[in-house]
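Training component of the fellowship. As part of building independent skills, the fellow (R.M.) carried out the full modelling exercise for a liganded target. The chosen ligand was glycine. The inputs are recorded below so that the supervisory panel can assess the work.
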Amino acid sequence: MINLTVNIKEKFKSYPIIINDNDIGNLKSEILNLLNDKNFVVVISEKVEKLYGKILGFEKKAKFILKDGESQKNLKNYEKILSFCLKKHLTRDDAIIAIGGGGVGDIAGFVAASYMRGINLIQVPTTLLACVDSSVGGKTAVNSTFGKNLIGSFYQPKAVFINTNFLQTLNERIFKTGLGEVVKYAFIEKSCDFSEDINLINFLEENYQNILACDTKILKLLVNYCLLLKISVVEKDETESNLRKILNLGHTYGHAIEKITKYKKFTHGECVVAGIIFAFDLAFKNNLIDKNYLFFMHDIIKKFNFKKIPDFDLKKVISVMKTDKKSSSEFIRFILPVGYAKVNEFEFNELLTIS
Ligand code: GLY
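Fellow's submitted model of the complex:
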């Protein structure tokens, strides 16, 4: 078992992250021990419910089952979950337990943030992406017709329970979407201001076959390494006013591709990988990195055999990138590599020239 702690100093708030591969049948009692007899509602992904509902053992009447897919993270479902909690008479001392991928964590997290102005939230991520990224750090959101994650808040969970056994039943595409975020952490490591040298790039080079084979021991280490980096960043900048922006490597371009393809054709991780490649090309063209590092990045990405994303009309992509939360009407902001596992933020105008 690995125990991590997130310390948000400004809020005098800290919470544990428990990473283990215990029997999934024990998870309910692990969570309820922490909740100390509080009342709760479980928001669970439909897929996870089908695969693990029985063994998890939560009562049917306490469960809100959410269909899977990005389109479910909408205001209608947000309201339905709120009403479900109201019908269950949850009070401010009670809890919402989110069991599923990033979508479930995001919408259940936003309900927890707003229900009676804030109720306890337990995150139980069941996809690699949610384990290494979205379940930690307090970003919660729903989508609007105007775009992804436009309505939300920063709201930290009370605890995160990661059981790597859930990862064994992910299909290859969903597993790899998480690997897209893992690769991102490798290329930003030295900018995360973490006190130790993990050398995640090296770890990926040495262990990519075991990672792809879902080796439990290696996956636990991998999740631990990514989260050590994420915690280091989030503790210093909870609300993304500064350092946390580096977590957006690959996301400005990636989000634009997701939007152009209506969130249907490619997964988030596939788009992030395309965004990382775009960021490296842009950095190379602007002499921020040399050719060797560019080739090195391609070698690492090749090892994981990500689904290729075709080139899109750059003009169109640029116009969409200008609407990104991170950009302004004048500038498009990118996180770009500047050296081995190091990144920085840059502003570009619409001709993609550094401003
Ligand atoms: N997923 C990026 C962040 O949490 O800031």
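The panel noted the following from the submitted structure. The mean pLDDT is 95. Residues 216-236 form the longest helix (21 residues).
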